[in-house]
Amino acid sequence: MIIFKHTVWQPGPCTVCTCDDPIILCETIRCTDPDCDYDKGEYLQISADSCCPECAAKLSSCTYQQQTIPHNTEWNPEPCVICICNDGEVNCAKKPCPNKSCKTGEIIQQIPGACCPLCIPAGSK
Fold this sequence. Notes:
- The chain is mainly beta.
- The protein has 3 domains: 8-57, no CATH class; 62-94, Complement Module, domain 1 (Ribbon), CATH 2.10.70; 99-125, no CATH class.
- It is built from no helices and 12 strands.
- The chain has a 3-stranded antiparallel β-sheet with strand order 1-2-3, with no helix packed on it.
- The protein starts with 7 loop residues before the first strand and ends with a strand.
- 2% of the residues are buried.
């Protein structure tokens, strides 16, 4: 194999070599700390074609009523409830209602089947 002066190559994922005629100098790659957020479920991973570790996130799907729900999916199991799958955990909450101000001659009322109170004309049922 002929290697020309100032040629740089990687014979493996963790080594870099340089030809500085007539000397070939090979060095091991130095990895930096990827500073993973372990509290959020990240972990160190070294892929097969890489030398240095990288942060990877474990984003698990959820099981809800015997159904598999992908990570970060939102759905409404009931008309007034919203759920989200967050890395294997299902979090559900009542849909938030906006602050309502009614016009003159209207009153705010909770209507059966509606998630949030509505403004209706005063004297209506």
